[in-house]
Amino acid sequence: MNPIPELKRQLQPMALILACALGLGFLFNLVMPQGLGWLPEAVSRPLWQPMARDQALAQLKNGAMLLDARPAGDYSQARVRGALKLPHDEIAKLYPLMKPLIAQAPVVLVYGQTVSRFPAADVAQHLRAQGHEKVYVIEGSLETLEKSGFPIQRPRRGGAS
Amino acid sequence: MNALLESLSLLARLITAGVFLFAAYDKVWDPANFAASVATYDLLPLWAVNAVSVSLAWLEMLVGTLLLVGLLTRAAALWACALLVFFIGLMTYAGITGAGFDCGCFPGGGEAAAHQAGFETAIRDIIFLVPAVFAALRPGRWLSLGGERGWAEGR
Fold this sequence. Notes:
heterodimer, A: 2 domains, five-stranded parallel β-sheet, two-stranded antiparallel sheet, B: 155 residues
């Protein structure tokens, strides 16, 4: 049996399967309460505002608080010097502990962004929803921040804190 | 001989259906969790993560269901093969880059070591590929909704 004509014959039913999957996925996400939008809510309906990196550097010199929203493992490998750890996936646990500190800060800057993830947006959204006014997101990855002049701290192995 | 081949076809089809349905139900029901797993790979732009993860979950679910009932069997099996080849490539890439996070393939992830993305997961997917290829080559007619009308043979 020559497989090529048979594969060509299968393209139509395969396309049908793909179309049905896309349709069902779209419908389910539209109807069900746990359905997803195109973008995370923290990105599609942000309560926070972005801050340019040079402006953020100036704010840091004036005593702004810097929060690292990336996963704890990433924080332990490298971070902007002076940043406090507030991973987006642990915010429910850590926020109550950090609330008094955040409330005292004149300005809160949050960073943490990769190609597919934007944890800084989630953390900033959470803080804004909790009533903190001056919360800003510094967009870009840690590498981008480093290139923009942010001092990076790379603790030795086992030096996570 | 024919009965033996039919039995093997049925077994291959049901194994592949089981794998895909087991993998898909949690992704379909909890799309946010699966989207977070997809995002961990950092391969897609942020705007594509939710759309791709939802589509992938439903494609897995539909492929599993069609293989289970024996409808559009060859096309579904070909999708299963294509997806598994993609996953094998993805897991190999994760192994090379030393990803070390949960692959997001099956329910029960989150506990880091449960299904860690990497070479072991790639080998597991190669094993899953064997019955999927068999089902694509010989869809069979037993317990197949489309069998009598020739659908199961991919006509």
